[in-house]
Amino acid sequence: MLQGQNESGDQYVVAPFPGGVLVAVVDGLGRGREASNAARIAVGTLKNSPFEHVIHLLLRCHLNLQTTRAAAMSLASFNALNGTMTWLGVGSVEGALIRSNPRKTRNELLFRSRGMVGSVLPSMRAHMTSICHGDTLILATDGIRSEFLDDLALKAAPQKSAEDILANHARATDEALVLVVRYLGVELSQTEKN
Q1: pLDDT per position in the chain (194 positions), as tens?
Q2: Domains assigned to the chain
Q3: What gap in Å lies between CA 96 and CA 138, rounded to an integer?
Q4: Of 12, 76, 142, 186, which is most buried, counting CB atoms within 10 Å of its CB?
């Protein structure tokens, strides 16, 4: 939260379902109570059906956010049964998938569509990628400067990585949230810092 604020429009989801887990970061438009309300509605929507495809989840959020300020969000659904992750982003929540073995598979950045969920929704296309033990997903709101992608060294535990990104790249003028998730196969290790 920004200093002096009681609520944050930057919120996250980690919602397990049989055979996988949904993770998401939501950034309600603006700051304070109205941004927090939009983010809470999106988070609740995602938690109600975490097993659904990310496009269906985003469309459901779009409908539920129409009476709010709207939100930016990025979602990733891990499927441990087939070793894949399907992800999608609309708006200013950045995402990066850092590979545990970059010699075999290269790192990936989330392709985000312009628009706002609940207001102007662009055509969407989810991307599916294979995922290996030790791969690390990072989702960050626009309160984190995008330079965090330039100096990522994710040998540390997810908690430490999240703390380092927040300490070194948070903007003093905006709410900030970073979610770091390490894929361990059937289970995930996650942490967030807000």
Answers
A1: 556 567 789 999 999 999 999 999 999 998 888 999 999 999 999 999 999 999 999 999 999 999 999 999 999 999 999 999 999 999 999 999 999 887 777 888 898 899 999 998 988 899 999 999 999 999 999 989 888 777 666 667 888 888 888 888 888 778 899 999 999 875 444 454 55
A2: 10-193 (3.60.40.10)
A3: 5
A4: 76
State the CB neighbour count (10 A cutoff) for residue 173: 9
Contact yes or no for 103/143 (Cβ under 8 A): no
| Sign of the dihedral defined by the CA atoms of residues 186, 138, 5, 71, in that order | negative
Q: Is the dihedral of CA 126, 86, 181, 156 positive or negative?
A: negative
Cα–Cα distance measured from residue 106 to residue 52, given in angstroms and rounded to the nearest whole number: 27
The answer for residues whose C-beta is within 8 angstroms of residue 58's C-beta and 6 or more apart is 73, 75, 88, 90, 117, 121, 124
Of the candidates 76, 59, 77, 30, the one whose C-alpha atom is nearest the C-alpha of residue 118 is: 59
DSSP code per residue over 110-149: --EESS-BTS-------EEEE--TT-EEEEE-TTB-GGGG
Look at residue 189 in the predicted model and tell me its pLDDT.
45
